[in-house]
Amino acid sequence: MTDDVQLSIGLPNFGTWPGGDWRGFLDVARAAEDAGIDRIVLVDHVVMGPHTDKYVWGRFPTPPEAEWPEPLTLLSAIAAVTSRVRLATGILIAPLRGAALLAKTAATLDQISGGRLDLGVAVGWQREEYDAAGLDWDRRGQLLTDTIAACKALWTQTPAAFKSETVNFTDTYLMPKPVQPGGVPLWIGGTLNKRNLARIVESGDGWIPIMGLSTADMGRDVATIRQALADAGRDPAALRVQGPVPMVKGEDGKFDLARTLEGAPEVIAAGATALQLPIQAFCAGPADAPAFFADARRHLDAVLGR
């Protein structure tokens, strides 16, 4: 059903796009809501090491000294000036926060926003962040698995108890709980390997495919996840998927929004429930954002016949 598909816009909470005024991000978020955008997505790095050349998905978008505000803090400010648009991370490096602190922070933000938070999580790619946090880089996968499962326990149990290799607690109270039933939705990011599939089945509500995955491969992986959910007794139709729309350039060599969104039906057919676009590919800065949001909403509705 295309009526259920959300238009999801990635906002660059890093580098120079905001023009040095992070308070201006609130105006951008308000403009997104006014234009009928369904979700806004921020990304995460806690600290940066010098070796951005180790980023394997192309050229890293900033130098290591670039500004990069913490996404949950910025989303809290955005929550205060909006009322409808969903607030998402895509992704948050969950193990860097620790389970109890992350559960508390996310639950508070869900309360403040009236139940609008989607928490996209993954392990990240940079060892230096784990070193700075005093965490074992080689155990990052286990840390992610345990962190998100522990968050689920804290959000849904009163008192909560959880036991794993890296997180353990009993008779523990976390209040307030998130507004959303079952806790904040967890969207697991990354390649659909065996461990990520297990995380989705055990604790996840959605999946964020790894950057660069083709639409056809995304569709194959969505089918795999749905089958695994069904095998585990969970509803496969409830799976949420953040699907990037393949970018298309026009004759001038610039990314063409209308042509790009013509590919939306194929991404939806592959299983996407939230169509993802990066705003910085189409407008140079915050001043251009209101027009971009309006055009994106209009073009997508036209393509989908809405």
Automatic annotation (TrEMBL):
Segments crossing the lipid bilayer: none
Location of the Luciferase-like domain: 20-247
Pfam family, one: Bac_luciferase
Enzyme superclass (EC): oxidoreductase
InterPro entries, alphabetized: Lucif-like_OxRdtase_Rv2161c, Luciferase-like_dom, Luciferase-like_sf, SsuD_RutA_monooxygenase
An annotated Gene Ontology molecular function: alkanesulfonate monooxygenase activity
Record's signal peptide: none
Keywords (A to Z) from UniProt: Flavoprotein, FMN, Monooxygenase, Oxidoreductase
SUPFAM superfamilies: Bacterial luciferase-like
Enzyme Commission number, as recorded: 1.-.-.-
Single Gene Ontology BP annotation: alkanesulfonate catabolic process
PANTHER family the UniProt entry points to: ALKANESULFONATE MONOOXYGENASE, ALKANESULFONATE MONOOXYGENASE-RELATED
Protein name: TIGR03619 family F420-dependent LLM class oxidoreductase
Source organism of this protein record: Yinghuangia soli
